[in-house]
Amino acid sequence: MSLLDDLEQLRTEALTAFAAAGDAKALESARIKYLGTKGRMKELLGRIGKAPADIKPQAGKLANQIKGELEAAFGEAQARAGKAQAPSGPVGDITEPLPPEKRHTIGKRHPLTRTVDSLVEIFHALGFEVVEGPDVEDQRHNFDDLNIPADHPARDSFDTFFLSGTTDALLRSQTSTVQVRMMETRPPPLRIVAPGRVYRPDAIDATHSSTFHQVEGLYVDRNVSMADLKGTLKLFVCGLFGADTKVRFRPSFFPFTEPSAELDCTCPVCLGRACPVCKQSGWVELGGCGMVDPAVFEAVNRTREDNAYDPSLWSGFAFGFGIERMAMRRHGITDIRRFLENDLRFLRQI
Ligand code: DAH
């Protein structure tokens, strides 16, 4: 047969094969057979090179035309095979529950985060702004400007982690630092709450941890009184634990407040009837509070040029509560260590 006849035959055979290929695999073997590097087309092109001069141009032209046609036909067949393979309807029953090992576990917010979120929401409703301060502090913010001078015995009750290799850096032992930071940078009036982590080298047991969280509050305005403090805290505690909760102040001492008090509320677990969580007393402690000591305003004024916190014009109240304590009371948790262990069995239970 002549070269031209062979080319025509290749066209017919290959077009038929591409059209007949039922799936991608059959199509690929047809492509290799006709258009592959060792396929029929290649072989015929080779023969054109050696063909007599009189038929060469015609054969070359025909070969190019057929090659183009076959490539186009292959492309179309390939598109058809691809579509045939794509699933046309639902694969299995998509409403069927997955076997346990394939199920995604849905995460939840940590109990501490939930407590912070709730208390932030309550204070927000009372007009307080939420702010934050740094965990790594200096002595001035953690002690001096809070009216705790270096030789003051109260320093002992705020045992502190100092950062080695530095002269003045420490991990804050109380969020009261944020009171100073806020007053340094903003003029009165102020109404802020600052939740955050604090650090103390305590011996660790069911009620003590070397790191825990506090929420600090500060309200500075004209004529702020102890009654404002008690009213605000009563609203807060009722928002967190329920409207029936009662609060009481016990006299206390903090260097940065005068007078100072310790705030208790009726035990949210037994509602004041006495249980192991409140050690049968019916009351639980939430933290400290009091009227801002004028010495703190004066310390802040030393870092401000405008003397904005003039104690004869402004007064304020402050408070600082342990967040773990509140979360423990809310959920009846009896061991503070649970919060840091990340034991999923505990976290799922709450
Ligand atoms: N910073 C105190 C502590 O960690 C708690 C505290 C007491 C904060 C009285 C206050 C306050 O703002 O007024 O023990």
Architecture blueprint of SSEs:
Blueprint: H1 3-20, H2 24-35, H3 40-50, H4 56-85, H5 111-125, E1 129-130, E2 136-138, H6 139-142, E3 161-162, E4 169-171, H7 177-185, E5 190-199, E6 211-221, H8 226-241, E7 247-254, E8 257-266, E9 283-292, H9 294-303, E10 315-322, H10 323-331, H11 338-341, H12 344-349
Parallel strand pairs: 1-5
Antiparallel strand pairs: 2-4, 3-4, 5-6, 6-10, 7-8, 8-9, 9-10
Helix pairs in contact: 1-2, 1-3, 1-4, 2-4, 3-4, 5-8, 5-10
The protein binds 3,4-dihydroxyphenylalanine.
The site of 3,4-dihydroxyphenylalanine (DAH) has 13 residues, from strand 8, strand 9 and strand 10.
Describe this structure in words.
The chain is an alpha+beta fold and 350 residues long. It has two domains: 3-84; 111-347, 2-Layer Sandwich (BirA Bifunctional Protein, domain 2), CATH 3.30.930.10. The protein is 41% helix and 19% strand. The chain has helices at residues 3-20, 24-35, 40-50, 56-85, 111-125, 139-142, 177-185, 226-241, 294-303, 323-331, 338-341, 344-349, and strands at 129-130, 136-138, 161-162, 169-171, 190-199, 211-221, 247-254, 257-266, 283-292, 315-322. The strands form two sheets. The chain has a seven-stranded mixed beta sheet with strand order 1-5-6-10-9-8-7, sandwiched between helices. A hairpin with a 2-residue loop joins strand 7 and strand 8. The longest helix is centred in the N-terminal third of the chain and has 30 residues, at 56-85. The mean pLDDT is 92. The structure holds 3,4-dihydroxyphenylalanine. 3,4-dihydroxyphenylalanine (DAH) is lined by residues 174, 176, 216, 254, 257, 260, 287-290, 318-320.
